[in-house]
Amino acid sequence: MSEARNEENGSAGTAAYVDRIVAAALGFAEMASIALGDRLGWYRALAGAGDAGLTPDELAQRSNTQPRYAKEWLEQQAVAGLLTAVLDAEPLGGPSYRFALPAGAAAVLVDEDSLEYTAPVARMLVTAVGHFPDLLQAYRDGGGVAWSELGDDGRESQAELNKPWFDQRLGAALAASAELHAILSRPGARIMDVGAGFGWSTLALADAYPGAEVVGVDIDEPSIRRARENAGERGSSGRVSFALADAGDMAAPGSCDAVFIFEALHDMPFPVRVLSAIRNFIKPDGAVVVMDEAVADTFAPAGDEVERLMYGYSLLVCLPDSLSTPGSVGTGTPMRQATLERYAVEAGFSRVERLPIEDFSVFRFYRLHV
Questions:
Q1: How far apart are CA 326 and CA 347, in angstroms?
Q2: Taking CA 321 as the corner, what is the angle to CA 22 and CA 309, rounded to the nearest 5 degrees?
Q3: Residues of the domain holding 219
Q4: What CATH number did the domain enclosing 160 receive?
Q5: Of 251, 264, 259, 189, whose CA–CA distance to 223 is shortest?
Q6: What is each CA distance from 18 to 22, 42, 301, 323, in whole angstroms?
Q7: How does pLDDT run across 335-355, given as a tens digit for each residue?
Q8: pTM of the entire structure?
Q9: Considering its fold, how many domains does the chain have in total?
Q10: Which of 30, 89, 157, 318 is deepest in the core (most CB within 10 A)?
């Protein structure tokens, strides 16, 4: 009886594990289909059609794509529950349908100003998987896949995910800390944004604190070029500046009132070196703020969705990027508070404070005290 029961339990466990893998396969395939719809402009075309929806031929015509592919994608999206399908006609060749975005979907898939805009997640992950042979080689020999190798799809998806949060929530989030807000509000305050990317965080800082001098710094030339373009389009070129440089070469000792690192420290191959440079040029009464992933304080099996997503990013993007530099410490995306505290102390800071900023996407804010 005991052997039979164990066999039955094992069979049930195997079936459950198969279900888990099938569910993951469905998620992977549907994520790739979302990336297709995003990059081909199909979701935007559907959003433009409103409740009336589009036929495959209409979608193909509006997006300059092929009707047969459009038909297959529309049907797949409807089967997956990502689109609605309404019977349009029943010609001799069989029924035809019109397809539309359901209520609320445009905010997630199309509206780049929406806090719920998450289509770039699909683009980022599919772009990373496109480098699968390089990832395999890196995992074998200890090398990596640099951020620059992901190209514009990687850069743009990262920037688009964070932009609405910076635009709409950053100023209020920083004002939640009275002491930090006072520092940033100093007349003529000098603020540096390290790892500025496309500059959305830099521009948000300048909007929130118009009396400050704000400079964004990054080592990625295409990102800095786009940041300057974004500043020009917003009419902010006179209030902010962007530099293609290592932050450690950008400031004299004791010259900055505040320094920010937004979702970038865990990618850096030598975080202590960066923090040591910042420790040198921050004023004694200044503020250093690191925004990074809101992961659990310690590793534990069966983590929540944030933990699972960050490990996914780490496997495919962040850790390979960091390890593409020889000698990197290889932090990885799930940078826990204890790790940040260790880096900060090694760099000469006295302590790390978790700031009272909640519900800011999947991020957490820390202040490093001199």
A1: 20
A2: 35
A3: 125-369
A4: 3.40.50.150
A5: 264
A6: 6, 33, 19, 33
A7: 999 999 999 999 999 999 999
A8: 0.93
A9: 2
A10: 318
